[in-house]
DNA sequence: CCTATTTTGGACCATTCGGTCCATTACTCC
DNA sequence: GGAGTAATGGACCGAATGGTCCAAAATAGG
């Protein structure tokens, strides 16, 4: 270890705590105080380790998309079929409504909604993240195609965007307070649309 | 007219200006200063006429849903078929991307996203509004059913929620910067899913 | 014309915001 | 154990926040 007083907190853990706060409350509605309380560190440590609220937010966005993409990819890799992965991914929205972060929505879509066109850096991070999610869906759809559960003529690119739109839309509905069974009925229609 | 100095601004116009600001910037990111500038009135007039930022926001939410529901209803009434109404409503998202408020999203979904479960009053106004939109979709679907462009067995309630989810999702995508042709390709899939 | 009534402009306010600074503390390396 | 280095706690900061107050202005009715 290099010289100097040792850090008293886990940087990764603090980042994840910050991510959860931004995820549930948004950027503007989250004050520095909220952040410090939830991350469990002092102002000095905060600024020394993360630079500023805006910088931390960017790091959270990146962490979120890394986490999401990684989870989706490994879920796809472990799924019995591409179709299976798509179904369980969507159903996760309905199943999660009772859990802690289950009604938090999607941090990327939340951010796109909050910022609109206002901040170029945020916009580009968000659309990169949404693109990655879309890519995983496309991979799953292509796999479903080779597995025969999708016609060869299907436009997997557009279908992937359709799925991303509905995943985001449903997470938004969950955030707005929709009942799990209402969400499930929509998922049924979405899945049927792929056939 | 009753006694007293006459008001120098149009209350309805000011309300609509405020609505547009909240619509594009959200609640937290909109400062009183922004509001006053865009509404064109002084602080005293503002507080005298609208009470507070929070009260004004509620009025804007209500005005938005009245306006939206009314526009959708008259659009449905004037449409050749129920199916036609649904198609043009969705295509409006793609067509609007170039216009002034075309990438602002849906104020109700934006608000649901920004507030989450934080404010009970806001939540209830938002879900009432979303319910009204869903109802118009259901009416259109029921009409499409009688017109023969939808099977009699179709669950119009769930399909209405599906359409509301996609309308919100697509407006969100537009807000995130999606290209109109990408939006159009998703709309094609959504419409095909109804058949 | 005078009074009652309402709106307007702007001074004023406490609080909160994100952020800086620095003395103190706790370590490593020599 | 002393020197160098990095993290911590907390005092401090200017600016912006949403909101109040009141004197001046502009009307209607008597």
Q: In brief, what are we looking at here?
A:
The first copy, chain A, is built from 9 helices and no strands.
Describe what this molecule looks like in 3D.
2 copies of one chain form a homodimer. Chain A has helices at 11-25, 32-39, 43-50, 53-78, 82-96, 107-115, 120-146, 156-176, 180-194. With 195 residues, chain A is mainly alpha-helical. In chain A, helix 1 (11-25) packs across helix 2 (32-39) and helix 5 (82-96) runs parallel beside helix 8 (156-176). The termini of chain A are far apart. Chain A is 74% helix and 0% strand. Chain A binds chain B through residues 24-26, 28-29, 103-105, 109-110, 112-114, 116-118, 123, 126-127, 130, 155, 157-159, 161-162, 165-166, 168-170, 172-173, 175-178, 182, 185-186, 188-190, 192-193, and chain B through 24-26, 28-29, 103-105, 109-110, 112-114, 116-118, 123, 126-127, 130, 155, 157-159, 161-162, 165-166, 168-170, 172-173, 175-178, 182, 185-186, 188-190, 192-193. Chain A binds a DNA duplex (30 and 30 nucleotides) through helix 3.
Number of distinct helices of chain A: 9
**Structural class assignment of chain A:** mainly alpha
Oligomer: homodimer
Distance between the terminal alpha carbons of chain A, to the nearest Å?
57 Å
Largest interface: A-B, 45 and 45 residues
Radius of gyration of chain A: 19 Å
Q: What portion of residues of chain A is helical?
A: over 70%
- Low-pLDDT segments, ≥5 res of chain A: none
**Strand tally of chain A, please?**
0
Shape of chain A: elongated
Main sheet overview of chain A: none
* Order of SSEs of chain A: HHHHHHHHH
Q: Strand share of the residues of chain A?
A: under 5%
Mean pLDDT of chain A: 97
């Amino acid at each position: 270890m290099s010289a100097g007083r040792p850090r008293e907190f886990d940087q990764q853990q603090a980042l994840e705590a910050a991510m959860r706060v931004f995820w549930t409350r948004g950027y503007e509605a989250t004050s520095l105080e909220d952040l410090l309380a939830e991350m469990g560190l002092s102002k000095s440590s905060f600024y020394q380790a993360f630079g500023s609220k805006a910088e931390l937010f960017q790091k959270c966005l990146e962490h979120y998309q890394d986490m999401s993409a990684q989870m989706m990819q490994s879920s796809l890799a472990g799924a019995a079929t591409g179709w299976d992965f798509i179904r369980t991914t969507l159903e996760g929205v309905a199943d999660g409504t009772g859990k802690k972060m289950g009604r938090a929505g999607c941090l990327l879509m939340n951010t796109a909604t909050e910022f609109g066109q206002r901040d170029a850096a945020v916009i580009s991070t968000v659309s990169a993240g949404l693109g990655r999610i879309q890519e995983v869906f496309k991979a799953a759809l292509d796999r479903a195609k080779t597995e025969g559960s999708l016609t060869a003529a299907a436009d997997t690119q557009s279908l992937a965007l359709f799925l991303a739109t509905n995943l985001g839309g449903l997470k938004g509905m969950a955030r707005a307070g929709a009942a799990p069974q209402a969400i499930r009925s929509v998922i049924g229609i979405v899945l049927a649309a792929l056939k």
